[in-house]
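Onboarding guide, step 5: your first structure request.
Type a short instruction followed by the sequence, for example:

Predict the 3D structure of this protein.
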Amino acid sequence: MKLQQLIPPERICLDIDAKTPEAVIDTLIKALTDAGAIADPELVKQKVMERERQVGTGIGFGVAIPHSEPGPYPEPIAAFGRLTKPVDFKSPDGKKVRLVFLLLTPDKTPALHVRLLARICRLTRSATLREQLLGVATAKEAAEKIAELETDYPELTP
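The system replies with structure tokens like these:
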């Protein structure tokens, strides 16, 4: 499994106009709902916001990974969003965020949850990828950029 499989173009939202982490998360959850990836958006929001209240999910470099503890999902689920204006996700470097990856994983695969978080962290450490994601014009281009950079990474297994 690779991120590129979890984040097809229909799960990518470009130019999200939001002022709070909750509004960003709402937009990404709606994309997942519209794509048929989640059946209970209220439960997802509750779990993700519970985690967000515990500690901000900004990881630095203008990137955040809102997520919940592994939950009642049939398979790993992810979405990507690019914000029009930076939003504070309480990153350790103090920088506001414009690139957001929402991640949900099943209860039965807690190790995969950690590996997917680590993969997103590694990929987004690349200034090149961050710049490319900030500059893409379409969701398809964003999905292609993620796939390109992930090419040399191994498949992740549950």
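Each response can be followed by summary notes, for example: Residues 110-124 form the longest helix (15 residues).
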